[in-house]
Amino acid sequence: MRADPNPDPALPSTSSTSADPARARRATSAAYLLAAAPVQFVGTWLAMVAFPDAGWAKAAFGAAKITLLLIPLVWLLRVEGRRPRPPRWSHRGMVAAHATGVLIFISIAVAYAAVGRHWIDAGAMRAQVDAGGLNTPLLFLLGAVYWCTVNSMLEEYFWRWFIGERLRDVLPRNTAGDLASAVLSALLFTAHHVVALAMLVDPRTAVAASAGVFVGGLIWSLLYLRYQNIYAGWVSHVYADLIIFYLAYRIVFG
To answer: What is the pLDDT of residues 120-146, one digit of tens each?
Structure first.
């Protein structure tokens, strides 16, 4: 799939304003990928697996989230040589965004009704929610609002725009390269979710949910490639988070 040849001017440009040759840009993009792609995985692993009771590990998890914002900003300032600004809202791709979002919403609901409600250990999930400090309905709902709005946008900004475009820099600029960048971006996006899911649910549920995360990440990467509009992936992403947090609320609080 080739990206739209006339990308949304509201998106941060990915064409270098310097005279660096293509090889130098590929090397720079590869360096940024190596620095940025593992950050969320490492932060999640430290906070949820290696040192779940350590305050510094929780701080590292928060720092990883901040890094998702900062590294792309450094790219824009140092490599692109331009001032960061939020992309203008665009309706491009919104039909596909809502269509895929509704499909994902229904798929998650059906999967939960069919097998998820039998597989998920509600007590274990409640314990994890308590450990995360979201042990009242109000706190849980506040957390859900954050994850369904701010966090989902941050993930689209980082995984679909920044990581996706850096992968396109190092891969061939053709249909096969674009598809490979979408798949790799989705795999990297899935990695830290695997760690979190392994701590929240049993292995078979974690495997099934991780596969769902990968499919979602792939859909959102393809939406970005097709429409060059970060909001298309975000709208579709919000549908997924809404049903996930609704089901989680029912499991935890009844």
So the answer is: 888 888 888 887 788 899 999 999 999
Tell me how many domains the chain contains: 1
115 in any annotated domain:
yes
In a domain, 36, yes or no: yes
Enclosing domain of residue 240: 22-253
- pLDDT the model gives residue 11: 53
Q: What is the DSSP letter of 173?
A: S
Other Cβ atoms within 10 Å of 212 Cβ, number: 19
In a domain, 27, yes or no: yes
Cβ atoms 82, 76 nearer than 8 A:
yes
CA 134 to chain centre: 21
Residue with tokens 């899911």: 197
User: How many other C-beta atoms lie within 10 A of the C-beta of residue 175?
Assistant: 10
Tokens 């799939």 label which residue?
1
- Residue 121: what pLDDT? 86
Burial class (CB in 10 A: 0-12, 13-18, 19+), 157: buried
What are the CA-CA distances from residue 43 to residues 53, 56, 167 (Å)? 14, 11, 22
